[in-house]
Design brief:
Chain B has about 220 residues and is α/β, with parallel strands linked by helices. In chain B, the strands form two sheets. A nine-stranded mixed beta sheet of chain B has the order 2-1-3-4-11-10-9-6-7, sandwiched between helices. Chain B has a two-stranded antiparallel sheet with strand order 5-8. Chain C has a domain of about 170 residues: Phosphoribosyl-aminoimidazole Synthetase, Chain A, domain 2 (Alpha-Beta Complex). Classes of the chains: A alpha+beta (about 90), B alpha/beta (about 220), C alpha+beta (about 725). At the A-D interface, strand 1, helix 1, strand 2 and helix 2 of A face strand 1, helix 1, strand 2 and helix 2 of D. The complex binds adenosine-5'-diphosphate (ADP) and magnesium ion.
């Protein structure tokens, strides 16, 4: 079993209105020391090991569905977990 | 000749298109379920309606584009026949790669619904040949993710090929180059955020949108010969 | 995880009190059962006997409302009421409050409020065609309120927009009293072919009970109980009943249910949404209504979380769920239909030819109560009431101070309660379904009835400030304002729904307000011939014992017989004559100008005569039916000057008006008034109808707002003034 | 200067409609081995060091604005970066 974390953000050249809005809100709440805010999407995905390369699979998922590569970039982390009882 | 309106789970301007085609243009619309593999053989045009396919979850249009029917919509477009995506339909067509670019959240981050003045930049397409060049038209917009984006290279191409069809006179959402609607290079696939079907009867406040459907219908009828 | 106390411990430790049952109520349950209730059973009674579900404190007052009439097809008692609109069609509507959830999590609270009311409408077999809301917030002077407003609007918009239901109207006011208790009421209007009318009843021995829609989780457990308690500082941490809305799932659920209703008429016995107190209230009510018992197997309930105990499963308020009773033998048909919409349909039990309501889990009988005890035996209380001292004030009226009349008008137009609400309603899709003829921004919204020449007008109204100063007359005025809006748009009022938003009924002064407001409303219902066909009560809107102003929202719907009667507020043509209909007096207590100049409303409310009101409304109806009007606009908050400005702004054309009154009177809020405009060629005909009940005050035209009074004049540039009015609210929200 | 990453997800008992929709879409794309998908928000925030405890500040930001603690949980990572030229 793999526990995968995927992070998606706009490409640096693209203005991120959500990040700007959050920054303004933080400034208004008196966090004047906040310099930049980027807002992105975050996915936690549990994937059963089926023998295929997990990296390949995650990249394909991102390219096909999770990110729109015209405007977004992604990165991911893969953790291998041994199947145990759920909490 | 049928006008195929593609219906995804969450489409909600499907009936609006249906009524305009049937009651105003007096042609024959037909709903096509997203799970169908093929468009009807006598399809003259494909219309991808507005709404919230799959709730706009993830990104608007991102999930709908994998629907089985989209394969045949691509084939249909490849044959040069007309495909139009309105609002969510535009988002689906960009996600599906039928049109360049992408649609981001509006600059204000808010959903915006109001009548919006547009200029018809290109009246040489099969969707717009009943308009005057640079005519001002009033189409309502109603979207949260209508902020058109493309990179500089694509923008240059769009301009060079005269692919920009409608621009906002008063950019409401932050769209690159005020773009409200574009066609593909071949000119037979149109995507636009504003809703011509909401402006096709004077009781609803304006009928500019009717010209777009009249252009489309004329071209479909002509193709049949 | 919850632990289940034994029946003896529940009694000894008085656990039921935490769930809102009093000692007396608990003894009554014990008596009804002839034994001590177990943990699950106690929970079922606590939920169904909560104020939110049982109306135990408000029922006697609701009895005052007229609920019948020759057009009424369904009065209160079902998901929503129905009124006949001829040609075999009915209009279905209801309003619901989601105040407490919105205060805790404004986005989701507002969104799920919309989701809930939409389910009520389609459960009747109707397709939702319009939404309205009624919002009352604190002042826009702190970041928290701005955030609350923003998120509430976003929640309402996102849910309705995604469902494809246009939000066509509503109202929004701002007063400090609502700071900790937002009022968020949503109203949904649907259309029905009368043959498709449904009921929430489960009849027929052994007929299957189907659960359809989203899975059940632990969200919103005790929501009904939670809605029946006040807020206070100490309680902040208990606010955990947040539910997340899934409008996409609801859209699919709606389409599936409507297809079932419209195309499989023969197999559906009853349908009801799972709203407050979720599964228990919907299933028990469906059984009780039909006079049947029910057995449910909780193992079959679709569950999102593991290890849920019966109490949690029954009381969860997870959204986007409905309960169906269908005819035996058609199980596959139902399951296939929902599968088509990627929605789940699961049989969880069946109707029984007994009077018992039985629940099983893991092969154990976990609850076994007489269904009528649960649904029909809830106690009803006549609470003590006491007239608040503030109502007995000298009759004197507030006197506005006006130095610069132009300046005063500009200041008035910038008040958030008066300023244009476009920055709110433009976040709602008001046009989807392509029937919206009069979009938000005028008086009532109007949607056409496709395939006919008729149209429906609809509005929500309440002026809590008036009710605070005089609940009885304030209740009448809320009704009158609604009717005035409907009439001004060319419609005949058909009926109303309401949301009674008040403080705690345990407070005798609040109970007095409730009593008087409903009395005033009921009288007005008779006068306007608008029965109450549905509604909702939201009590305990208090923070640290401070109740909100009495806020009974009136949601009214009217019928426009032909499209040429549709009338809008905007001045249309240069040269049209402007009339003000109705008397103007020095009525300033409870008004916007009093609030603006002294930061609060006070004194005794001005006099109100509902007979005169009705006469003035009939006058406008006559004028419209005789095709004599170019525009009609009712006067409300802000009075004559604001009303004239609004008609000018909406028409983008100036006015030249002279009134024979002191300048102050421009801001008086005397009721029963309209501004209408008349084409010059219709002057004689119009004046014949108007007679002594109105006066010609000027003309449409030019690019100035020009209003002469006995004192100073208003002379303002139309475009600039309009800009101020349009931008004021947006600026204050930022 | 601190570079802070904040991850916000719904509490386990709260419905995550987006996560469900993405999971269904992945299954349809033949990623049958995907077991669960959670969708959350992700923030990257650059904060100038102003002497106050950065942990306290980030937690306050999350409680006040970034997360709604009635239904969401958050976690964060703080990296201390020496101010260099931006990329
Ligand atoms: N203030 C009111 N005026 C008239 N009818 C009311 C009022 N409050 C509740 N009702 C009616 O009582 C019935 C039960 O209401 P409610 O519990 O809100 O319905 P639901 O179960 O759909 O949430 C409904 O038919 C409703 O229309
Ligand atoms: Mg209901």
């Amino acid at each position: 079993m793999y526990h995968v974390k995927v992070y998606i953000t706009y490409k640096p050249s693209i203005l991120d209105p959500q990040g700007e809005a959050v920054k303004t809100a933080l400034h208004r709440l008196d966090y004047q020391n906040v310099e930049t805010v980027t807002v992105g999407k975050y996915f936690e995905i549990d994937i059963k090991d089926d023998g295929r390369s997990i990296e390949d699979e995650v990249e394909k998922m991102c390219d096909e569905l999770l990110a729109n590569v015209n405007m977004e970039t992604y990165r991911y982390e893969i953790e291998s977990v041994t199947q145990t009882a759920e909490d | 000749m049928k006008y195929a309106i593609i219906r995804f789970p969450g489409s909600n301007c499907d009936w609006d298109l249906f009524y305009v085609l049937r009651d105003v243009l007096k042609v024959t619309p037909e709903f096509i379920d997203y799970r169908e593999q093929q468009l009807p053989a006598d399809t003259g045009a494909v219309l991808v309606p507005g709404g919230f396919s799959y709730g706009d979850y993830l990104r608007s249009g991102a999930i709908a584009r994998f629907s089985p029917i989209m394969e045949d919509v691509k084939h249909f477009a490849d044959t040069g026949k007309p495909v139009i995506g309105i609002c969510n339909g535009f988002q689906v067509l960009t996600e599906a790669g039928l049109l360049p670019g992408a649609l981001r959240h509006n600059m204000s981050l808010d959903f915006i619904c109001k009548p919006q003045p547009l200029s018809v930049v290109n009246n040489q397409t099969l969707f717009t040949d009943q308009f005057e060049k640079d005519q001002t038209v009033m189409f309502p917009i109603a979207h949260g993710e209508g902020n058109y984006y493309c990179d500089d290279e694509t923008l240059t191409e769009l301009k060079q090929n005269n692919q920009i069809v409608f621009i906002y006179q008063d950019n409401p959402n932050g769209s690159t180059a005020d773009i409200a609607g574009i066609v593909n290079k071949q000119g037979n696939v149109l995507g636009m955020m504003p809703h011509p079907e909401r402006a096709s009867e004077s009781i609803l406040g304006g009928a500019d949108g009717k010209l777009l459907f009249e252009s489309l219908v004329a071209s479909v009828e002509m193709a049949v010969g | 995880m919850m632990t289940e106390l034994s029946p003896v411990d529940i009694k000894a430790q008085k656990l039921y009190q935490q769930w809102g049952l009093s000692d007396d109520e608990f003894s009554q349950v014990e008596k009804l059962l002839g034994r001590l209730p177990n943990f699950t059973e106690t929970g079922l009674f606590a939920a169904i006997w909560s104020e939110h579900c049982a109306y135990k404190n408000s029922k006697p007052l609701l009895k005052q409302f007229p609920t019948t009439g020759k057009r009424i097809l369904q009065g209160p008692g079902e998901g929503a009421g129905i009124i006949d609109i001829d040609d075999g069609q009915g209009v279905v509507f209801k309003a619901e409050s989601h105040n407490h959830p919105t205060a805790v999590e404004p986005y989701q609270g507002a969104a799920t409020g919309v989701g809930g009311i939409v389910r009520d409408i389609f459960s009747m077999g109707a397709r939702p065609v319009a939404m309205l809301d009624s919002l009352h917030f604190g002042e826009l002077d702190d970041t928290q309120t701005k955030y609350l407003v923003d998120q509430t609007i976003a929640g309402i918009g996102d849910y309705g927009n995604c469902m494809g239901i246009p939000t066509v109207g509503g109202e929004t006011t701002f007063d400090d009293i609502f700071k900790h208790n937002t009022v968020m009421n949503a109203m949904c209007v649907g259309l029905l072919d009368n043959a498709d009318q449904q009921k929430g009843a489960a009849a027929g021995d052994d007929n299957p009970i189907y659960y359809v829609g989203a899975k059940t989780g632990r969200d919103g457990i005790q929501g009904a109980i939670f809605a029946s308690a006040e807020f206070s500082d100490e309680q902040e941490s208990q606010r955990s009943a947040v539910q997340v809305g899934d409008p996409f799932a609801e859209k699919q659920l709606m389409e599936a249910c409507l297809e079932l209703i419209h195309e499989h008429t023969d197999i559906l016995v009853g349908i009801q949404d799972m709203g407050a107190a979720g599964l228990v209230s919907s299933s028990a009510e469906m059984g009780a209504k039909a006079g049947y018992g029910m057995e449910l197997n909780l193992d079959l309930v679709p569950q999102r979380e593991a290890g849920m105990i019966p109490y949690e499963l029954m009381l969860s308020e997870s959204q986007e769920r409905m309960l169906l009773c269908i005819k035996k033998g058609h199980e596959q048909e139902v399951e296939d239909l929902f599968a088509k919409y990627e929605s789940e349909a699961v049989q969880i039990g069946h109707v029984t030819d007994s009077t018992q309501y039985k629940l099983y889990q893991h092969d154990q009988l976990v609850a076994d109560v007489p269904v009528h005890a649960l649904v029909d035996e809830a106690p009803v209380y006549h609470k003590p009431s006491r007239r608040p001292a503030r109502l007995d004030q000298a009759a004197g009226q507030f006197e506005p101070t006006i130095n610069d009349l132009n300046e005063t008008l500009i200041q008035m137009l910038s008040q958030p309660t008066i300023a244009s609400k476009h920055s709110i309603y433009e976040r709602y899709d008001s046009m989807v379904q392509t029937n919206t003829v009069v979009a938000p921004g005028g008086d009532a919204a109007v949607i056409r009835l496709r395939g006919t020449d008729k149209a429906l007008a609809m509005t929500t109204d309440a002026n809590p400030r008036y009710l605070y100063l005089e609940p009885h007359d304030g209740g009448q005025i809320a009704m009158s304002e609604a009717a005035r809006n409907i009439v001004a748009s060319g419609a005949i009022p058909l009926g109303i729904t309401d949301c009674l938003n008040f403080g705690s009924p345990e407070d005798p002064e609040v109970y007095y307000e409730l009593e008087q407001a409903t009395k005033g409303m009921a009288e007005a219902c008779e006068i306007f011939e608008t029965p109450v066909i549905s509604g909702n009560v939201s009590l305990y809107n208090e923070f640290n014992k401070q109740p909100i102003y009495p806020t009974p929202m009136v949601g009214m719907v009217g019928l426009i017989k032909s499209s040429d009667l549709i009338t809008t507020i905007d001045f249309k043509h240069e040269g049209d004559l402007i009339y003000v209909l109705g008397q103007t007096n020095g009525d300033f207590n409870g008004t916007e100008i009093q609030k603006m100049q002294q930061q609060e409303v006070s004194g005794r409310l001005f006099d109100f005569d509902i007979t005169y009101e009705k006469q003035q409304q009939d006058l406008v109806t006559n004028l419209i039916n005789s095709h004599l009007l170019q525009s009609a606009h009712d006067l409300a908050e802000g009075g004559l000057a604001v009303g004239l400005a609004e008609s000018s702004f909406n028409g983008n054309v100036g006015i030249d008006v002279a009134v024979d009154m002191p300048q102050n009177y421009l801001f008086a809020e005397t009721q029963s008034r309209f501004i209408v405009s008349v084409a010059p060629e219709n002057q004689a005909a119009a004046e014949k109808v108007i007679g002594e009940n109105g006066a010609l005050i000027g003309k449409v035209g030019g690019s100035q707002l020009l209003i002469r009074t006995n004192d100073q004049d208003i002379n303002l540039d139309l475009a600039k003034t309009k800009q101020t009015w349009r931008e004021a609210l947006a600026c204050q929200l930022n």
